[in-house]
Amino acid sequence: MNATLLSGSQSGVVSRQATSRRQQRLAAPVSRVGPCRPVATLAAPSPAPTPSQAPQAAQAPAKPTKLELSELTAVSPLDGRYGRISAPLRSIFSEYGLIRFRVLVECRWLQQLARIPQVTEVPPLSPEANAILDHLCTPEGCTPEVAMRVKAIERTTNHDVKAVEYVLKEHFRTNPELAAVLEFTHFACTSEDINNLSHALMLKEAVQGHVLPAMDALISELARLSSEFAAVPMLSRTHGQTASPTTMGKEMAVFAYRLSRQRAQLASVPFLGKMAGAVGNYNAAMSAYPEVDWQAVAAEFVPSLGLEFNPYVTQIEPHDYIAELYGAIIRFNNILIDFDRDVWGYISLGYFKQRTIAGEVGSSTMPHKVNPIDFENSEGNLGLANAVMDHLVNKLPVSRWQRDLTDSTVLRNLGLGLGHALLAYASSLKGISKLQLDAARLAADLDGSWEVLAEPIQTVMRRYGVPEPYEKLKAFTRGQRVTQDSMRTFVAGLDGLPAEAVEALQALTPATYIGNAAQQAADI
């Protein structure tokens, strides 16, 4: 009870009662393990620290050394450890790449305005003026130095697209013709008119120039394996248990076909764009030039960039095509994960050996190891790629009302998932290049699995009306050790089969019971 709430007499009573209780507790015998410290010791306050023992003031952490960006200092392994593989994407998805495509769109839009007869304030441009704009649309014209100037101005504007406009005006002032139409730079545009077209151009260059060729290389290698191993019999495994035989080539063909379908779906996704102003209605453009059919202008301009025009938009192009595009890549990647894991398993079973490379180390402590690291690296990077792209698939099509800004920071990661995917594709290709089939190991596995012939034997028995064929083979094989001799003895003892059927079954082996697997592999 709080003593400040009691009267003086009440406080005294409570104090005496508490003292009496403490004395009783101290007087009671105490059972402890080990000696008990004296009461006085327990009650004595800790001595005050001497000046030399006084706690020191917290030291501020040392200022970290500023490190220049390199493979050793990059935060992302895509730009560090794996920079050699992801390097081709830097000119596309880096900050410089985004600025480069924004400059291209702004210059092409000014050229488009000059082709509109009603916009008399921007007359047709001379070859000299067009040459300046065309040059700025190239990497040689829009150099990293130009992009650095944009970033310098952005430190003042705190707006990246406006900074691009200001830098372009600096360039245009050097030409009297372009200087005369200076304020038609970024005319009637919202930032998203420039951004959505830039993003579409970035994705198109990356997909067509890098992603599809890498996918094609994988599919080509799997088709090669399909052909090379078309007739090599292999024991199948369903649920991890022995099953009807196939061929190694046919299993490779399955992956080649599956990946080809997803590759085709990716290639069919259109790259959409808009140029419709702040909310998708051409409001600003129509207020200045109501006599111009601005939707028709946009429908002409967007395809001139190599993109497909989207007529129904808000402030943003809704990004549905980006979700479709990444969705196709995710499906391709999931199939490749399936392939990586299967090959990993085949290596574990001894079906494949891996070509060793002089100087490589498999384990820091086990010298014999030759690990399937390429397929493991691929699987890990495919998981990272899919995680990033899955967020893009689910986030980008969703925007509050006519636009919110949640897509902006996400779109700056367009290249991240693709970078991890390309890294994974390169790893799988490297792993495939090391594979060496051990046909003897596959043959030995088949020869130890005669029980798989239970399927064809009971199926032939069904044809000829032998009663309870499944049940007979189940009793003979399930959980039993079946050999070539025991299987042939079983077939010889069957009643009701014609002699030619018995002869065919007697000649059948696990290695020859492969159906049309070899033909399927050859046909891929």
TrEMBL record:
Pfam families documented for this protein: ASL_C (PF08328), Lyase_1 (PF00206)
- According to its UniProt record, this protein's enzyme class is lyase
Task: Describe the reaction catalysed, as an equation.
Answer: (2S)-2-[5-amino-1-(5-phospho-beta-D-ribosyl)imidazole-4-carboxamido]succinate = 5-amino-1-(5-phospho-beta-D-ribosyl)imidazole-4-carboxamide + fumarate; N(6)-(1,2-dicarboxyethyl)-AMP = fumarate + AMP
Q: Where is the composition biased (Low complexity)?
A: 53-64
Polar residues: compositionally biased ranges: 1-21
Q: Report domain Fumarate lyase N-terminal positions.
A: 80-380
Q: Which pathway features in its UniProt record?
A: Purine metabolism; AMP biosynthesis via de novo pathway; AMP from IMP: step 2/2; Purine metabolism; IMP biosynthesis via de novo pathway; 5-amino-1-(5-phospho-D-ribosyl)imidazole-4-carboxamide from 5-amino-1-(5-phospho-D-ribosyl)imidazole-4-carboxylate: step 2/2
CDD domains referenced in this protein's UniProt entry, alphabetically:
PurB
Q: Could you say which EC number(s) this protein's record lists?
A: 4.3.2.2
Ranges for region Disordered: 1-65
Domain Adenylosuccinate lyase PurB C-terminal residues, every copy: 399-514
Query: Among the record's GO biological process terms, what is one?
Result: IMP biosynthetic process
Q: Which domain of life is it from?
A: Eukaryota
The protein's UniProt keywords, in alphabetical order, are:
Lyase, Purine biosynthesis
Q: Which GO terms describe its molecular function?
A: N6-(1,2-dicarboxyethyl)AMP AMP-lyase (fumarate-forming) activity
Q: Which family does it belong to?
A: Belongs to the lyase 1 family. Adenylosuccinate lyase subfamily.
Q: What is this protein called?
A: Adenylosuccinate lyase
Q: Which organism is it from?
A: Astrephomene gubernaculifera
